[in-house]
């Protein structure tokens, strides 16, 4: 069989539908869950700024919670929070919930 050149190979890795990543609920990968303490939070939005998955829910520059559908549990939000308002806990603590 003749070897194909790069011009003969079908183009791959194309995203032809904007926003398609919403379909991939990356939260299923999580082994640690960030728990937000609203009483400690000063709405500095550092967690929102640094979250790699846009999983911090904010409205009008105020934190409103964490979107567990997409949060992968990396712990960045807890690491950058200046008020220790986010605690990382094992997912096993929540077995049987939601
Ligand atoms: S644990 Fe990681 S992915 Fe989840 S909200 Fe915090 S920074 Fe975002
Ligand atoms: S980093 Fe901490 S204090 Fe700042 S908005 Fe997030 S949870 Fe609140």
From TrEMBL:
CC cofactor: [4Fe-4S] cluster
Keyword set includes 4Fe-4S: yes
Record-annotated 4Fe-4S ferredoxin-type domain positions: 32-60, 61-91
One term of GO molecular function: metal ion binding
SUPFAM superfamilies recorded: 4Fe-4S ferredoxins
Listed Pfam families: Fer4_21
This protein's UniProt keywords: 4Fe-4S, Electron transport, Iron, Iron-sulfur, Metal-binding, Pyruvate, Repeat, Transport
Subunit (UniProt): Heterotetramer of one alpha, one beta, one delta and one gamma chain.
UniProt-recorded name of the protein: Pyruvate synthase subunit PorD
The organism of origin for this protein: Kosmotoga olearia (strain ATCC BAA-1733 / DSM 21960 / TBF 19.5.1)
